[in-house]
């Protein structure tokens, strides 16, 4: 005779446990919880984990980056200090107010951003105006990789391997006129894609489109870079896809993202952060440990490198972010405390 | 209406959960890497908002109790106030440990040079004074002085939103809403403010 003895863990009857219809609906219920609780706030497509419970479909909303052909340019390595920042941190800690003001908003909100088709206009005081489409950005010049220090005005910093070409290359190609003194850059204005442009609350009260500018001499320095990629791939949207400026001796807000217009002009342009708070953000915005931001010190910076929260280091900030040899001459005779 | 001991107990449990769940959320976010590549700013902001929200809540309790005649609600005020202090402690600690990386000299020079940090620290010191004197036996010993000291919550309620407003780069809408909310909560009590000038001992409220 078969003696059926239930093990101790099997003491429940079927009607003691979760009703079947609830069990069948579990995914639906989880979705609802996710929607009601935190919604898109919690979705984070780049990494799998606990929060995936709350997002339904992560693979399809993840922006697709493509590999790039490029040549390493180690000549710029001599200026960097510290190791490369891990890619995962560079693409998940971004200031891109068009997608929201928190550091994680860009990676959370920009994954469906359309980078192709794209048009980059080079216009103004130039001999031969140009419009570059998406493919031209990658074909016009041979791409090179440069590892640069990146210093945010908020006193944190990274070391990032960018891929792209010198801004000077493109300016030489279009030929600037004799009237030219400055270069203006504009980010895409597309409130349908950029929630921060649609809603003041999301966008932090910045007047869009975002505008930045350089003097012509700054723009023509070989260090000034137009980046179309990082870590061997095309840029993800949160880092300014498909094309962005990188000016490594200036605070990060000068390195404007997702650029659609490069306009050569005959006067200094108004620039976004400078207009918003002229006493805090100057037009030049050169990295300068001797000129504090009114609300925090610029003498040192938190280097975001490898390792966890407590392995971060505070390091001394260098004048011109370490690029003084390269660009110091541009500012001869200029009082950098007044022209901060 | 009188709230039963049991009801007050449930309200307290609810208040504890409201106070602690956000911390659990923060912990999971950070551990799971969902607070961004460099969660320091996230943690500082999150804990700061926790403190600010708790301050708003403590000031909301007595108007609610009055309006709905639920005197028993006043029993949870201390608990909410202690959460304000706890969040503020985490906020200061995160700033000092994660952002400044324990650089004492930088901490002091930042406090001295940056008015918004000084305001925040001032509010924190006041909150600490309130937290340390929150025990019942100390309250009894202090008698009338206790209420006078604890009226400083109204000063905290002014300092904290200004500290927030001053600290942001550009997104002033949210801090403005907090300033407005706290202003309204203070206006409701306008009659109380002769307390600072009058010699009468404070009413029990």
Describe what you observe in this structure.
The complex is a heterodimer of chains A (340) and B (205). Chain A has 340 residues and is an alpha+beta fold. Chain A has 2 domains: 14-61, no CATH class; 71-331, Sulfite Oxidase, Chain A, domain 2. Chain A has helices spanning 20-24, 26-37, 58-61, 87-90, 105-109, 134-139, 167-174, 195-198, 200-203, 216-220, 272-276, 324-327; strands at 71-72, 119-124, 130-133, 144-151, 156-166, 182-187, 211-215, 225-230, 233-234, 244-246, 259-265, 300-303, 313-316. The longest helix of chain A has 12 residues, at 26-37. Chain A is globular. Chain B has one domain. The two termini of chain B are 17 Å apart. Chain B has 205 residues and is mainly alpha-helical. The chains are: A alpha+beta (340), B mainly alpha (205). At the A-B interface, helix 4 of A face helix 2, helix 3 and helix 4 of B. Chain A: One of its GO terms (molecular function) is oxidoreductase activity. Chain A: It catalyses: L-methionyl-[protein] + a quinone + H2O = L-methionyl-(R)-S-oxide-[protein] + a quinol; L-methionyl-[protein] + a quinone + H2O = L-methionyl-(S)-S-oxide-[protein] + a quinol. Chain A: Keywords: Metal-binding, Molybdenum, Oxidoreductase, Signal. Chain A: It holds the Pfam family Oxidored_molyb.
């Amino acid at each position: 005779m078969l003696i059926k003895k239930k093990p101790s863990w099997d003491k429940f009857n079927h009607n003691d446990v979760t009703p079947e219809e609830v069990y069948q609906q579990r995914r639906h219920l989880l979705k609802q919880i996710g929607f009601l609780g935190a919604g898109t706030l919690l979705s984070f497509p780049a990494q799998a984990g606990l929060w995936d419970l709350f997002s339904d479909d992560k693979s399809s909303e993840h922006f697709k980056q493509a590999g790039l052909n490029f040549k390493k340019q180690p000549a710029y390595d001599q200026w960097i200090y510290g190791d490369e920042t891990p890619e995962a941190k560079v693409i998940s800690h971004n200031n891109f107010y068009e997608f929201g003001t928190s550091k994680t908003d860009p990676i959370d909100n920009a994954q469906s951003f359309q980078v192709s088709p794209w048009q980059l206009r080079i216009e103004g005081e130039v001999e031969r105006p140009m419009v570059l489409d998406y493919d031209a950005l990658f074909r016009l010049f041979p791409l090179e990789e440069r590892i640069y220090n990146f210093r945010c005005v908020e006193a944190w910093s990274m070391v990032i391997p960018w891929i792209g070409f010198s801004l000077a290359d493109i300016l030489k190609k279009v030929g600037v006129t004799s009237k030219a003194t400055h270069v203006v850059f504009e980010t895409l204005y597309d409130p349908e894609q950029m929630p921060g442009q649609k809603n003041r609350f999301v966008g932090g009260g910045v007047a869009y489109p975002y505008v930045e500018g350089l003097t012509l001499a700054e723009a023509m320095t070989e260090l000034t870079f137009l980046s179309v990629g990082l870590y061997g791939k095309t840029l993800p949207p949160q880092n300014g896809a498909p094309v962005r400026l990188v000016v490594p001796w200036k605070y990060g807000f000068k390195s404007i993202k997702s650029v659609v217009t490069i306009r050569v002009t005959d006067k200094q342009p108004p620039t976004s952060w400078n207009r918003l708070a002229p006493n805090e953000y100057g037009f030049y915005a050169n990295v300068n440990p001797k000129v504090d931001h009114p609300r925090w010190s610029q003498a040192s910076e938190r280097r975001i490198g490898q390792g966890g929260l407590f392995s971060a280091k505070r390091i001394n900030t260098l004048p011109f972010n370490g690029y003084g040899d390269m660009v110091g001459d541009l500012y001869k005779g200029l009082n950098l405390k007044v022209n901060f | 209406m009188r709230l039963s001991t049991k009801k007050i107990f449930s309200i307290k449990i609810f208040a504890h959960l409201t106070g602690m769940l956000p911390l659990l959320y923060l912990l999971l976010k950070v551990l799971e890497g969902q607070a961004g590549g460099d969660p320091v700013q996230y943690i500082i902001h999150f804990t700061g908002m926790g403190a600010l929200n708790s301050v708003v809540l403590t000031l909301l309790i007595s108007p609610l109790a009055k309006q709905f005649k639920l005197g028993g609600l006043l029993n949870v005020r201390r608990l909410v106030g202690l959460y304000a202090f706890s969040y503020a402690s985490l906020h200061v600690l995160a700033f000092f440990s994660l952002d400044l990386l324990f650089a004492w000299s930088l901490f002091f020079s930042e406090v001295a040079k940056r008015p918004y940090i000084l305001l925040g620290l001032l509010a924190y010191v006041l909150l600490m004074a309130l937290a340390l004197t929150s025990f019942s036996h100390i309250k009894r010993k202090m008698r009338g002085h206790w209420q006078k000291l604890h009226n400083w919550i109204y000063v905290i309620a002014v300092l904290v939103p200004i500290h927030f407003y001053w600290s942001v780069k550009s997104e002033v809408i949210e801090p403005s809403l907090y300033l407005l909310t706290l202003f309204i909560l203070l206006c409701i009590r306008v009659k109380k403010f002769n307390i600072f000038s009058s010699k009468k001992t404070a009413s029990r409220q």
